[in-house]
Amino acid sequence: MSDIVWELPALLWALPLALLPFVYVDVRKSVVWLKLTPVDPLSRILTPLLKLAASLLIALLVMALAGPHIPEQLSQRSGEGAEIIILVDRSRSMDDIFAAAPRNTLSRVPIGTQSKRQVSRDYLIEFIQRRPDDRFGYVFFSNHSTELLSLTYHKDAVMATVDAGALGRGISQTNIVEALLKAADMFEHEIYRGARRVLLISDGGQLLTEQEESFIRQRYQALQLGIIWIYLPAMRGMTLEPSDQDNFLWVDMPERKLHEFFKTLSIPYQAFEAGSLSDFADAIDAIDQQHYETLMVDEVQPRKSLADRFLLFALMLAGLLAAIQAYSWWGAYLPRGHDVDVRKLSGICYCEYLVFDS
């Protein structure tokens, strides 16, 4: 009961009204001479109890109107998961059809109808639903980065943000450096709870200067961050790792340069190439299976109203008092044989009293 808070505490000044049943005196005379009524010990016990019930009924109604509730509370528990900042590329290339066929492919080869950003949205929502203990944040970036959602445990808010991030059209420029630093800033003033990951979803890369590389390395090592990159190939056949079938134009692609830089950071780093829906699904499965570490999970207990409980008890007391009152009326106004005799007798005695008294 010590946790109860009142929304309108001023109404509690009306609690003295609960004393009215003890103050009220019935001045009506239903019996001419009280000595004619039999002694009823049970009534002497029930009368104060009924007054107490009526008093409690008034008190419960007043307290219910005052708005009793337990306020929102924050609790912690041990969980298994990670803290993940999602970085989604908003460049114009993410509006392209996901896993589109090369230009020289025959038209009879089926292709998808969803853009890369829409496919990313669908798999991200599925991933979030699998991770009940994870804490998510969301950033989308093009030439500038925008923090849409800070780190939170509210899965509905996270999924709504991811869904909204798939709307609209992208622009031509991309600044991955600013996005990576924005993600690091979101962990800057957070208590370290466990695994920290930055999930990057992009179809491109960026050539970094030595100063940018040094700054990113310093920030990510100091904050104990890891990077997961789901790469959506912009060109069929090109991979992040060099191969014998490489086109000579792919050697210095920004995606490969960025991939090589990530591998030198001395932090946890994984790269997944999602050139098809099955590749994307496999990447999500692999991430989901690997990134489970013990961390402290904050749980918000929502505000809980107690007015309904007060009203329920008041309703029970009101029903009891109404039933007793109905029984009293039934006993008073439905005549019985011996009741008539008592009335006659009481009238006679009253007359004799007047006569002898005079």
Oligomer: single chain
Radius of gyration: 39 Å
- Examine the secondary-structure arrangement and name the CATH architecture of the largest domain: 3-Layer(aba) Sandwich
Strand order of the largest sheet: 6-5-4-7-8-9
> Which CATH C-level class of the largest domain is it?
Alpha Beta
CATH homologous superfamily annotation of the largest domain:
von Willebrand factor, type A domain
- Global geometry: rod-shaped
Task: Predict the CATH topology of the largest domain.
Answer: Rossmann fold
Coarse structural class: alpha/beta
When the domains are counted, the total is: 2
Keywords: Membrane, Transmembrane, Transmembrane helix
Domain VWFA: 83-265
Pfam family, one: VWA_2
Transmembrane segments: 49-67, 310-330
Quick recap of the structure?
Helices cover 42% and strands 18% of the residues. The protein has 358 residues and is of the alpha/beta class. The relative contact order is 0.15.
Q: Which short descriptors sum up this protein?
A:
single chain, 358 residues, alpha/beta, Rossmann fold, 2 domains, 6-stranded mixed beta sheet, 10 helices, 11 strands, 42% helix, 18% strand, rod-shaped, disordered C terminus
Provide structural commentary:
- The protein has 358 residues and is an alpha/beta fold.
- The protein folds into 2 domains: 5-70 and 304-357; 74-300, Rossmann fold (3-Layer(aba) Sandwich).
- The chain is 42% helix and 18% strand.
- The protein contains 10 helices and 11 strands.
- The protein has a 6-stranded mixed beta sheet, sandwiched between helices. Strands 1-2-11 form a 3-stranded antiparallel beta sheet.
- The longest helix has 27 residues, at 307-333.
- The protein is rod-shaped and about 120 Å long.
- The chain starts with a strand and ends with a helix.
- Residues 100-110 and 337-358 have low confidence and may be disordered.
